[in-house]
Amino acid sequence: MRSSNPAPSTLSRRSVLAGAFATLGGAVLSSAEAQAPEQARRDAPVAAKDPLKITRLETFLVKPRWLFLKIHTNAGIVGLGEPILEGRAQTCAQAVKEVEPYLIGKDPRQVVHHWQAIYRHAFYRGGPILTSALSGIDIALWDIKGKALGVPVYELLGGPTRQRVRVYAHARTPEALKAGLARGFTAFKTGPAKRRPSRYLETPAEVRYAADQFGELRRTAGDDVDIAIDFHGAISPALAKILITALEPYHPMFIEEPINCQNHDVMAEIARGTHLPIATGERVFTKYRLIYRDAQIVGQFP
């Protein structure tokens, strides 16, 4: 007959608490709920105390311009990342190769530690190549950690904040915009229309042409649809200000990279000069660069 008293070796603080709460009729906490965290740990593919080591980094060049990374571990779990800078795939692949000796044999679950070590322990920090390589490594390490714990990475970062994400389509012509509307898109992005390569300063006729073409998209879409416009950082500051003023009556959703986004002080000046949202992005990298940018804008750096 099974003993009603468990052997001392099977007692634990968790089991005692779970049993005590269970006797309360579940008013405070059921035994199943008390054991849930322990069950989750048992169900994880790799237990927290189990050794998990990086064994190899493998990059894949995919034409015409992509690079992907696979980080292998001794547990058979692999992490996938994308250490790419547009137009510099082979250079980024070599940068990953140079970081590989540091990572081999390390526990991939120490994601932030490795990010700091790779970024801060180098004499030359940051830059588009090294940051892109580090970004791909960081993505792959998070992927491994999520797989080792048996949860999606978004759960490690605090959980989802929404169930749906709005997306936009690209449309440079009214016909393309109509096709997107038929597919259910309610937001679009385009570029400034031009009849020849842009000059540092444009004639009023060319500015008017760009505004009129955007206005045609607005008339096609109506006022219930959003249309953003991306200058691609290829417009001079003087011309960008004039174009934005000409576009304001058509209410673009936002203006993306009106000038080279690394020209932070002028970007801030443009943002202060219009009611339209200004988007900047992929060519400003790491939180340290953003801190420098903000400090530069308020005059703390020359």
How would you classify the helix and strand content by structural class?
alpha/beta
Low-confidence region ranges: 1-34, 295-302
The largest sheet is: 5 strands, parallel
Query: Which fold name corresponds to the CATH topology of the largest domain?
Result: TIM Barrel
Distance between the termini: 83 Å
Count of distinct strands:
8
CATH C-level name of the largest domain: Alpha Beta
Number of domains: 2
Mean pLDDT across residues: 84
Assign the CATH architecture of the largest domain. Alpha-Beta Barrel
Strand content: 5-15%
The radius of gyration is: 27 Å
Strand arrangement in the largest pleated sheet? 4-5-6-7-8
Shape: elongated
Q: Give me the strand/helix succession.
A: HHEEEHHHHEHEHEHEHEH
Helix-residue proportion: 40-55%
CATH superfamily of the largest domain: Enolase-like C-terminal domain
